[in-house]
UniProtKB/TrEMBL annotation:
Signal peptide: 1-21
Active site positions, chain numbering: 117 (proton donor), 258, 371 (proton donor), 392
UniProt source species: Trichechus manatus latirostris
Compartments reported by the entry: Endoplasmic reticulum
GO biological process: carbohydrate metabolic process; endoplasmic reticulum mannose trimming; response to unfolded protein
InterPro entries: 6hp_glycosidase-like_sf (IPR012341), EDEM1/2/3 (IPR044674), Glyco_hydro_47 (IPR001382), Seven-hairpin_glycosidases (IPR036026)
List of residues binding Ca(2+): 495
Enzyme class, UniProt record, top EC level: hydrolase
PANTHER family for this protein: ER DEGRADATION-ENHANCING ALPHA-MANNOSIDASE-LIKE PROTEIN 2
Superkingdom, natural source: Eukaryota
SUPFAM superfamilies for the chain: Seven-hairpin glycosidases (SSF48225)
Protein name: alpha-1,2-Mannosidase
Keywords from the named record: Calcium, Endoplasmic reticulum, Glycoprotein, Glycosidase, Hydrolase, Metal-binding, Signal, Unfolded protein response
Lineage, broadest ranks: Eukaryota, Metazoa, Chordata, Craniata, Vertebrata
Known EC number: 3.2.1.-
Amino acid sequence: MPFRVLIPVGLLCALPPLHHGAPGPDGTAPDPAHYRERVKAMFYHAYDSYLENAFPYDELRPLTCDGHDTWGSFSLTLIDALDTLLILGNVSEFQRVVEVLQDNVDFDIDVNASVFETNIRVVGGLLSAHLLSKKAGVEVEAGWPCSGPLLRMAEEAARKLLPAFQTPTGMPYGTVNLLHGVNPGETPVTCTAGIGTFIVEFATLSSLTGDPVFEDVARVALTRLWESRSDIGLVGNHIDVLTGKWVAQDAGIGAGVDSYFEYLVKGAILLQDKNLMAMFLEYNKAIRNYTRFDDWYLWVQMYKGTVSMPVFQSLEAYWPGLQVVCGVLMPDCCPPDNHFSLQSLIGDIDNAMRTFLNYYTVWKQFGGLPEFYNIPQGYTVEKREGYPLRPELIESAMYLYRATGDPTLLELGRDAVESIEKISKVECGFATIKDLRDHKLDNRMESFFLAETVKYLYLLFDPTNFIHNNGSTFDAVITPYGECILGAGGYIFNTEAHPIDPAALHCCRRLKEEQWEVEVLMREFYSLKRNRSRFWKKTVSSGPWEPPAGPGTFSSPENQDRAREKKPVKQKIPLLSCPSQPFTSKLALLGQVFLDST
């Protein structure tokens, strides 16, 4: 029996924005140049506040004007903001920060770190900055982009994550100790996104370093999730990585699942991989069949398809952008003869715009997107009323504007600038909005505000930015392994908005024997030059990471098969490890889903 979600009448009408801002020359649209400068000022207010009050801690606490470590102890905001500096045109600060990171960041620390967050923020941020270094005027070493200090830092950080993948299923734990590996009592329950969000960074790392282990473990994790889908083609929210059993069976496109779908699409484009795209297309059919109602996407039971939560989550706002990402980033990557055309990819721009406009009405209602929004009731969900300055709706606006040129998308950018400055700006940066109903603030500024929110706003208002390059300009780079073309455009953003140049993946193809000979020589040379012997001694002597032999590893398909046959140790299910919203207990929603008996 089909469902019908009753939408409050007020939501069907466009609400006036909080502030009309500066109009364009014709008086009908925001002036991109005006808002570009406003966004740049926002960035430096937040960035300077971090440097003055919080560095070397991970993040700024804007209400008390100090800092704290959150996802590790990496000076995380500095890593996350690095490529944004270049996108805003600040090459001198980019160069300075590169030196600061080399001198101050150490991954040999006794810290329990999120595997997911460390990958997207630290590994992704370092890889992006490495590939952009030459454009930023950094004096790169011989062999770049196949070698370089930021690449070596990214590799070291990624190797710290590899022990998490040593499970019978090949799906990783959610947390790993950077010094000791996975703690003996670590929960085996990980969210879907925490398993399927590695292929962009890890495939890039394998291509640049020549070590296939990173891409291999990312692909195994993706494959295991694909094999774990339900008979109706959906995946749940949290899974036990030891047994492969679903712990939370809510299926949707939001928190705990979101970037898994995103990385199937972006991984397919980055690697020109039809199998990844085929996986996504199958998921997309099930998502449209079971979770989509009136251009909203609800949460359903993964085995039955029945609605479990008629809720929109702010993290879902990436979806309209994903619907056009292939056509915007690489319009020639999807020729009709291999069924990768934009229309066959997901749907069409009209569907994406309709969903985007639904989400935009929520923004207009509150001046931001609450974490959870009850669709039938048209209001926030208790204890989920906050807006931590997330970027997803702005991200979709940027992609859709590149695809359509619709001025409505610039209006969202204008409203975002005005709302964030009016509600969130404080003396020491921008504070998370704890409650959109009364605009109470929380003492945190997430690093993604500078990595994603500000970046996507700036790119929305800067149509000539080098990130939007259509291939009309490029750089020819000579490497020890031949010539390659970089900077021609088609950048793939990881889920933390760190741009990866897909052409770089073709610069460093060589035999493994050649790789280690060249890499050891390069490391020894630059170790002497920079007098950083402690760092290089460890990374050179260790060589490529080798998984231990025996059951429970991914050293061979046979070992994986034997591991799956082995009975897991019975244990109590602990608390979920993923930082996103848990779904083991249902939220008390005041809205209602009505059966359509007609």
